Amino acid sequence: MRDFVQRVVESLSVDDNKDRVSLIQYSGNAAVQFYLNTYTTKGEILDIVRGLRHRGGTTLNTGAALQYLRDNVFTTSAGSRPLEGVPQVLILLSGGRSFDRVDAPASALKKLGVLIFTIGTTRSDRGELQKIAHDPRCALSVPEFTDLPSVQQQLQSSVEAVVIDVSAETPPVIAEAKKDIVFLLDGSDGTRSGFPTMRDFVEQVVEKLNVGVDKDRVSVVQYSRDAEANFYLNTYTTREDIVDAVRGLRHRGGRPLNTGAALRYVRDNVFTNSSGSRRPQGVPQILILLNGGRSSDSVDVPASALKQQGIFTISIGTQNSDSSELKKISHDPSNALAVSELTDLPSVQEQLSSVINRVLRAATPMTPTVTDSTFYGLNTSRVLFTTADRTGRDVVFLLDGSDATRSSFPAMRDFVQRVVESLSVDDNKDRVSLIQYSGNAAVQFYLNTYTTKGEILDIVRGLRHRGGTTLNTGAALQYLRDNVFTTSAGSRRLEGVPQVLILLSGGRSFDRVDAPASALKKLGVLIFTIGTTRSDRGELQKIAHDPRCALSVPEFTDLPSVQQQLQSSVEAVVIDVSAETPPVIAEAKKDIVFLLDGSDGTRSGFPTMRDFVGQVVEKLNVGVDKDRVSVVQYSRDAEANFYLNTYTTREDIVDAVRGLRHRGGRPLNTGAALRYVRDNVFTNSSGSRRPQGVPQILILLNGGRSSDSVDVPASALKQQGIFTISIGTQNSDSSELKKISHDPSNALAVSELTDLPSVQEQLSSVINRVLRAATPMTPTVTGKRALHPKHMKNSTFYGLNTSRVLFTTADRTGRDVVFLLDGSDATRSSFPAMRDFVQRVVESLSVDDNKDRVSLIQYSGNAAVQFYLNTYTTKGEILDIVRGLRHRGGTTLNTGAALQYLRDNVFTTSAGSRRLEGVPQVLILLSGGRSFDRVDAPASALKKLGVLIFTIGTTRSDRGELQKIAHDPRCALSVPEFTDLPSVQQQLQSSVEAVVIDVSAETPPVIGRCTSTALTGHGWALIFTLEETDMETAEAKKDIVFLLDGSDGTRSGFPTMRDFVEQVVEKLNVGVDKDRVSVVQYSRDAEANFYLNTYTTREDIVDAVRGLRHRGGRPLNTGAALRYVRDNVFTNSSGSRRPQGVPQILILLNGGRSSDSVDVPASALKQQGIFTISIGTQNSDSSELKKISHDPSNALAVSELTDLPSVQEQLSSVINRVLRAATPMTPTVTGKRALHPKHMKTDRTGRDVVFLLDGSDATRSSFPAMRDFVQRVVESLSVDDNKDRVSLIQYSGNAAVQFYLNTYTTKGEILDIVRGLRHRGGTTLNTGAALQYLRDNVFTTSAGSRRLEGVPQVLILLSGGRSFDRVDAPASALKKLGVLIFTIGTTRSDRGELQKIAHDPRYALSVPEFTDLPSVQQQLQSSVEAVVIDVSAETPPVIGRCTSTALTGHGWAV
C-alpha cells in the first residue's frame, strides 16, 4: 500500500504547487500523517511515505474516518482549496468491511464536491466501497493489495482526467461598498463537530472582503449560554490579521443556547462606536448568524431591536435550527438560509454573497431622525424648553415590580411607552432609563444603553413583571442615586441637563424613604410620583420633589387620566442657568494626584467619586508638558491605579478613571497613604516634575477618620512643597482633614460622597488659588563634598602629631545622625524631654546644605522608623516632625532587636546612609531601662560597620549594657532622669560635632576604629585609625554579572546585598562599549532582573538595583543558577561580548549551601572563560564556593551578609587581578583537523554527526569514558566554519535530546555541554524506539539536518546492552533516509543486533568495556572522515545504498 502511494505521488505535480497531498491512516479512529498544506515538495512527501509505519488496531471504522476527513482535512485551514475551484480527490484503500455505517459521511463528502475513489480486496465489502465511491465505477478491486500495480494506471488515468465544468463567470464577489460585518457563531456543545467548517466558512467570506480602516470591518462573536467577542470591528485592520484570528478560533462549548441574549450582546457591545461600528456615519451594519439549534430564550425583542437599529441580519441554520426563529431574526425572511449540516456551509457561500450584495443595495446611509413632538395640543407659557430648542432631559422610570402590581403591570408598561413616544430621543436630546424594583432594584437599561426611541420602545414592549413579596422603595431610590444618576451610567447632570425621576409605586415601602429621597433631591433630581389607593400618599409626597408632584390614580389601569398632567410637568421643567460659565482650572502646567478612599465605607459612593474625578480631569489641559494626572486608591494600604507618567492624553486618563473598580478593605490608614504618595508618586520616576518647579497638587477624597496618625506624613508633604486639598464627608474627621490640607481653608466638606458635584466649582477655585500661590521650586544643587587634604587641619591630641582632620560645622563634609529613642511605657512621662533634646541637637546640625542627614527611630518591643536619613532634606521639615512626635508605648524593651533593625534597614544606602562614601555614621541611643534581649551581637555588628554609638541612660537603665553598646565606654553618658538631658547636651554635641577622620591623602576615607578621644578647642574629638584603602576598578571594559542568593535564608541581609551591588556599580565605567552589568537572583530557580544589554548608563543600573525586591523561595539550587547564567546571560543575545574577547566576570553573593551539585556547571563556566568570584557567609559551604570560583583565592567570606562592605576593597582587588589575568578571547578558528588525512578532499560540505548514547543503569560507571570519547570526536570535527554539525541524544526507556544539530554553532559550546553531561539512568533499554525517535525528530530539517542539501548524515551509537524492543524496522528506516550508522558495543551488547543496526556489519565495532573506547577511536574517526559522496554535477547529491567499503591509504572509504 505504501509503495502504491509512493508511485501515485511520483506522478503528481507537487513542486509547482499545482497538486497537494495529504495522507491519513485509520483503524478504530483516524490519524493524520500529514495535511494538504504540511509539505510543499514532492521530496518531502516521498520521504514521509517511505518511512510510514503500519498503525494497527482491531476495529475498522471507515464511516468515522470519512467523517473525520470531512471535518478536519477537506478544510481551508488544512490546506484544502475547494473554494478556489481546485478538484478534491479522495483515494480510499480499505481491506475489510467497516464496523460502522458509511452512508452519511460518504454522502457529506460528496456534497462537499469530493471525488472519491475506492480500492478494496477480496476481504472488503464491495457494495460498501461502491456506496462510498463518487460513482460505482470508481470502486476498484484487487485480490490482495500486493496486486495494486495492476490498477495503478487505471486509477491514475481516472484521477488525471477529472474534469471540472467551470462557468466562465466568476463566483459572486461581495460589493466594494464599505460595511461593518459581525459574525455571530453558535459555539454551543451542539456545534462541536461542525465548528471547523464554520470557521473555514467565515474565513472564505473574509477573503472576499476589502478590509481596511475605512473599508470593510469585521468582528467575530461566539455564544452559547452567554456571548463573548473574539475580536471587535476595530481590533484588526487588515484581511491577513482577521484571517489569522479566525484560523485561531477555538470552539467555546456550553449550554443552553441563548440566541436572544447573544443578539442583545452584539447590539449593546459590538455595534457600538467604542467597538468600531460606523453606524452613525451611515455605514451598513450586517450581522451574519451561523446557528445549529433552537434558542433556549426568546429572540423576539432583541431581534426587533436590531432591526430598529438598522442592522441587517442574515441567518444560516441547520436541520436542528428553528427555521421560523431564524426568519424572525433575519432582517427579511428571505435572508434566512439553510443547510442540512454545518459541514454543508460551503454550499451556501455564493447565496450568502448574493444576499450581502442585495442588502448593500438596499442599505441607505442612516441619517439620525430628529423628531418634533407636540403634547396633546397643550399650549402653555410654562413650557420654556420645547423639543426644538431645549437641551434635553434625562428621564428615569422606577416601576414597582412587586407581587402587588402583577395584574396592573401591562398598564404601567403602556404608560411608560406613551411617555417615551413623546420624548425626543433620536437626536440625543432626551435619554431614558428604566428600573424595576421590589425587594431590590434591577436595571432594565441605563440612560446610555439605547440611543434611539425605537430601541427603547422595543425593550419596553417586551418588559416582564419582576415579582417579589417585599417593596423597598428607600433602597431603590438609594440605588438610583449611586448607580443610575451617574456620569458612567449616562447621566448628564454635571452638564446641566435636567434629571427627572418618575416613580410608579403600588404600595407602602417596607423601608424608610426619607434619607435616599432627600439625597436625590440634593443631587438636583426632580421626582414625580404616581401611586394608587394601596400606596401611602404621605410617603409619595415626601419622596416627590414637591408635594404637588405626587399624583394618584385608583388603579394603574387609570394611568392615562394623569398622563397629560405628568407630561406637561416634565416638559415644563425650568432650569435657571447662570450666564456665567463655571470656573475653568488655570492653564499653568501642574501635577495632580487624586488620593481616593477605597475602603469598605465608601463602596456605595465610589461611582460618584469616580465621576467627580472624571469631571475634574475634563477641565484639565493634559499633555506631557502640560498637566499630568495620577490616581491612587487606599484603605489599609495604598496602591497607584496609574502614575503621573502613565497617560499623556485626557482621553486615556478619562478612560482609565471610568474603569476604576472600588478597592475595599479596612482599616483606613490615611497616614500611610499620604506617606505612600510622597515616596512613590511624587517622585521623578513616577513622572513628578517637582524638581523643575511644576506645582504639585494632591486632592484627597475621604469618607472616614484615619486609623493611623496623619501628622508626620502630612507635615512631610507640606515640607516637600506639595499642596494638599482634602474633601471629606460627615463621617470624616474635619480637624484631621484641616491638618492634612496645605491650608485649613483647603479642607472642603460634603454631607455624602454623592454630593461631590456640589463642590466641583469650589475645588476649581481652590486649585486656581493654589496655582497663583505656587512659585516655581528651584532645586538646590549641592556640590560634591570634598575629602581632599586641602580641606583638612592638623591637630594634636594628647601630644599625638598626625595628619588628622577636625571637621567643624564650617568645613566638614557632614554626618549621618540617627536617633534611637526608647518609646516603651517606662518613658511615657519623660518623652517630651527626649523630644526636646532631639530638637535641640537637630538645631545645631547643618542639614539644609546636605552636610548632615538625620533619621529617627522609636522602639519598644520592636522598632518603628519615624523617618529615614533621606526622607527630609531641610532642618525645618525634620523639626516639624520631631515636634509632632508621639510616644509609641509598649511593655517590652528589645534594644538588641532595635540595634539589629538599624543595621539592616537604616544604615544602608537605600535608606540614605552615606557610609560607603566615607561620611561618619553616628547613632545616639536614649534608653530608659534594661533590654529584654541581648545587645552584644547587634551592637558589635554596628561597630563593625563603622557606626559611632553614643548612649544616654537614666538611673533605671543598665549602665554596663549601655557601655557595652557604646562605641567606647566613655561614650556612654548618664542622667538621673531624661528631664535632665540638657545637662549632657553640650558634652554630647561637642563629641558628635568634632568627629575626626584620619584620612589618607590618596584614598577616600573609610571609617575605622576609635582609638582615643580628646577635648579640643572645638569640643570633644574622636580619633580614628584607618587602614582600608579603596582601589579604583580597572578601566578595561568588562561584562559583570551579579548572581544574588534570593532564597528565604537571605531575607534579612538582602538590603545590604543590594547596597553592596550598588557600590560596586558606582565604581564601574558603564556604557555600551565600556562596562556592562546584569543582575540575576535565584533560589529554587534563577531569574534575570536585567541583562547585560538592558541598561547602558550607570544611573539606570543603580536605579534598577535600588528597586530590587527579595525573591524568596527554597531550596537553594546554586548549580542550576550557574547553569542559568551560562545559558541565558553570558550569551550574545543577552549582551555578552565574550566572542569579542571582553572579560566575563560573575560575582556570586551566597548565603547557604546549595541543594544541588555545582561541579559540572562551575566547570562549564571555567571552560567558557568566565571568571567567577564568590562571596559567602558563615552559612555557606566554603569548599563549594572555592570550587565555583575561577581560582580558590577568589572565594571571599564574611560572617553575615551585613558585613559585605568589609570585603568591598578586597573585591576590587580581585576584579583588578582578574582583569590583568584575562587576555582577550579571540574566537578560535579551527583549521583542518589533525585527524583529517592530508590526502583527502579539503573542500567537502561537511557532515551532520549525531551521537546516540546508552544512558541506562548498565552504563553508569562507564559513562565518563563515553563522554570523553564524544569529546575527542567533536575535537576533530570542523564545527566553527559550519561544515560539521553535531547533535547528542541519550536514551534508556525513551530518548532525550541533549542538543540538536542546529542548537550550537561553535565547537566551544558543544564541548562545554558534553563536559557537563550527566548520566540519565533507567532500567530499560529501548534502542528501537530511540532510533525511531532520531528518524522522526533529529534527522529532520527543523532540527538542523541538511540531508536534503546532500550533506552526509552520520549516526554513532554507543550501546552497552541488548535492546528490550525490536530494532529492525527503525534501523532500516534510518538507512532508507541515507543515514550512515556506526555502532560500538561492549561484551554485554548483542553483537548481532548492532551489526543489524549498522549501515554495514563491518561498521559494528566492539570493545571489552567503554573505558577501552580510545582503542577504536582512530578506526571510527577514519571511517567517518573518509565518507565519500559521489555527486552528480547536474543534481543535488542524494545518499544512495552502500555497495562496498575499502581500506584505502586515507582510511575506510564508503
Overview of this structure, please?
Mean pLDDT is 84; it is low at 163-172, 364-389, 574-583, 775-811, 995-1034, 1223-1243 and 1427-1454. The protein is flat. Strand 18, helix 19 and strand 19 form a beta-alpha-beta unit. It is built from 42 helices and 49 strands. With 1454 residues, it is an alpha/beta fold. Strands 8-7-6-9-10-11 form a 6-stranded mixed sheet, sandwiched between helices. The longest helix is centred in the first third of the chain and has 14 residues, at 349-362.
Can you summarize this structure?
With 1454 residues, the chain is α/β, with parallel strands linked by helices. 30% of the residues lie in helices and 19% in strands. α7 (195-207) runs antiparallel to α8, α25 packs antiparallel against α26 and α37 runs antiparallel to α38 (1307-1315).
